[in-house]
Amino acid sequence: MVIKTPTKFFFVKGKSEGFMPLNAFDGALLDAGVGDTNLVKMSSIIPPRCQEVDPIPLPQGALVPVAYASITSQEPGEVIAAAVAAAIPEDEDHAALIMEYAAKGTRDEVEATVRKMAEEGMKMRGKKIREIKSVAIEHRVERCGAAFAAVVLWD
What we know:
This protein is an alpha+beta fold. It has a single domain, classed as Pyruvoyl-Dependent Histidine Decarboxylase, subunit B (Pyruvoyl-Dependent Histidine Decarboxylase, Chain B), CATH 3.50.20. Helices cover 20% and strands 46% of the residues. The chain has helices at residues 21-32, 107-125, and strands at 8-17, 38-41, 45-46, 51-52, 63-73, 79-89, 96-104, 129-140, 145-154. Strand 6 (79-89) and strand 7 (96-104) form a beta hairpin.
């Protein structure tokens, strides 16, 4: 099997209620537009010169590389959130770094944390950051809820 290096990436996010935690997670994937694919969780690197695009329809059943954060809860009234951030380097010949974070708390709190994580990760690599892009979503649990945020890599 030949695995191609992705040339495109995009951000998605979703939330849902469900019968059980896995149902809620599945609903969040559907809400994010990736529910009918096979997500392949990867470590958090965007290849050099990879271009950000608007979310695209993915073929059903496709193997889709993704860096994601998710959280489920069965505590009514609890606020949960998931976020991802990508630190884009100044030098486009270097890889970008994705960080993922999910926790009990608001979208703003979780997004601020994941953006700081991306900044720190690039410092560890000794790379200057051109920009940090992020998405986050929160959900107030009714019975059994989930929140999901991801960076999808595609060719």
